[in-house]
Amino acid sequence: MGYKLKRSDEDVSEGLRRIACDQLDRALAALDGTGDMAEAVHDARKRCKKLRGLIRLVRPQFIDYKTENRAFRDAARRLSDLRETGAALEILTRLEQSYPERLSGPNAAALRDALKARRAETHLDDFDSRRAAFRDALKAVRHRAALWEVDKTGFGAIEGGLKKTYKRARAAWATALETRDPRDLHQWRKRVKYHWYHTRLLKPLASKKLRRRIDRLGELSDLLGDHQDLADLRRMIDAEALPPEAAQALASPLAIEMDRLQNRAFARAPKVLGKPPKALVRSYRKRWKKCRG
Q1: Of 19, 183, 223, 227, which one's alpha carbon is 20 to 30 angstroms from that of 189?
Q2: Where are the alpha helices (DSSP H) in the chain?
Q3: Where is the CHAD domain (predicted)?
Q4: pTM value?
């Protein structure tokens, strides 16, 4: 069905229900499958984020927003440690390829062994029961999602959520640009990602110019996501009590890559976050009226 509102949707409520039920069905199918369970969990957690983006679009008009947002957030948190360790191993592999002279031999091996041990502990630490609880939580939301309603029917149903999320992305950008703190870049990444989800949901109504923003927002989100993965890896290095020489060898490549990614993100931000919120909403309202009357 796709993660987007359709012109054929009778109203926003119908589109909301259709998208939510489709995403939840896909997440549940992955968790019930026979494939790699780590990948299934990762897929389901990504869909939780997309669903949180979906309900944020209608937030001011959706009376159940707080309940459902909390449900998706808490469900995904049950298995967040599994994803973090897997991402850290992927990042470490890329760093080894980019900095072979610094990370050859025992330095990277010490961290890799520690991360693999942590991942094994994650799988053994009530993984099946946590996965079952995750699945049950999504199943409960699936039953409720079939009955979701928003208070307005036209562009008014999404206008407030679109504007608020975009304003937050711009504010988080300003904060991150000022502080350069990884925690602030992480908050910026979350706000950018939610706005990216909104542009994807509205893609059928967008002009060619607005559609180009979707790709640019996706690229910005990826840059900030990679930066966060590096920050998580640095935190894990501090927690693992590695030999001093190993920790020192890893510190420099991490710092270089984090600086590179944040500078690229700051350079790209004006293209997708430079327009004032009122102007952005006005452009979408114009397209909505043209496409849906």
Answers
A1: 19
A2: 12-32, 37-57, 65-77, 80-98, 100-103, 106-124, 127-145, 156-179, 182-201, 208-239, 244-273, 277-292
A3: 9-285
A4: 0.92
